[in-house]
Amino acid sequence: MVNRKELDPARSPADAYGDRLRRSREARGWSQDELAVSMGYSSQHISAVETARKPPTSRFSRKADAVFGTAGTAESFERESRRIKQGVLLEGFPEYVGCEGRAVEIRLYNIGIVPGLLQTPEYARVLADSAVQRGAISQGQADERVAFLAERQSALVRPRPPMVFVTMDESCIRRPIGGSAVMDAQLRRLVEFASLPHVLLQVAPYEIGERRPFDLPVNLLTLSDRSVLCYAESQTQGHLERESMAVLPTLTAYHQLQGEALSPAASVAMIEELRKGTP
Question: CATH no. for residue 43?
Answer without folding.
Answer: 1.10.260.40
